[in-house]
Design a protein that fits this description.
By secondary structure, the chain is an alpha/beta fold. It has seven helices and ten strands.
């Protein structure tokens, strides 16, 4: 059992550097970390360590039927995770990454990972937050979900995340209050017509401005 999660103030250069080192080490050990993103705080772990992903779902009180999305620090890392981006993926990435757009694609079948019941897909995003990007460039792809217990409000500060997740997390990277608590827009690219799965920070009109037609539920 590891000690209570340590919190690092990422507005302080020295603490930020130490926090990133500690978080990278923790992720490498299969432990959980909390990090700021451009939407809300996330709880994350190494995407390729199945036991860590199980711990993440347990910390949130979630089942395998709700697999976490994967955050990446580079477009190249995203390309390695997916079978292909389809006809629209690259244009959307060029327009909105890094940023609050999650793309659901067919997962690369050569990867040995277990994110839960994904039905052969993966949801990928490159967040527009310097702390998150610095960490992801060190760790590689991370399974990241909002840093809250399932059903509770999303955490917009590291303290809120810590209140809900406590000792299940090894390292808390505190980047201050997040600037936008609207979740990312989720777009499914695995069907012939891109399909909106969740409304979020990027309005549908903007998506249509890049790729034309987007199917919505309403």
């Amino acid at each position: 059992m590891h000690a209570v999660g340590r919190r690092f103030d990422c507005t302080d250069a020295d603490q930020r550097a130490e926090g990133l080192r500690e978080a990278t080490t923790a992720v490498g050990r299969g432990e959980l970390v909390v990090l700021p993103t451009d939407t809300v705080y996330g709880i994350g772990c190494d995407a390729f360590t199945a036991a860590a992903v199980t711990s993440l779902l347990e910390a949130k009180g979630r089942g395998r039927d709700m697999p976490p999305p994967v955050l990446v620090g580079t477009v190249r890392a995203a390309n390695a995770l997916v079978e292909d981006l389809g006809p629209y993926g690259q244009d959307l990435i060029d327009a909105f990454w890094p940023g609050p757009l999650t793309l659901v694609c067919k997962a690369n079948r050569a990867l040995s990972w277990d994110l839960g019941d994904t039905k052969g897909t993966v949801a990928v995003r490159m967040p527009l937050h310097p702390v998150a990007l610095d960490l992801l460039k060190e760790t590689g792809p991370m399974a990241v979900s909002s840093a809250n217990r399932s059903g509770a409000p999303a955490a917009v500060t590291a303290a809120e995340a810590e209140e809900q997740l406590g000792e299940s997390v090894s390292v808390y990277l505190d980047g201050g209050r997040t600037s936008d608590n609207t979740p990312s827009t989720i777009l499914d690219l695995t069907t012939a017509v891109p399909r909106l799965l969740r409304r979020g920070s990027i309005p549908v009109e903007k998506l249509r401005g890049i790729i034309g037609y987007v199917a919505t539920e309403d």
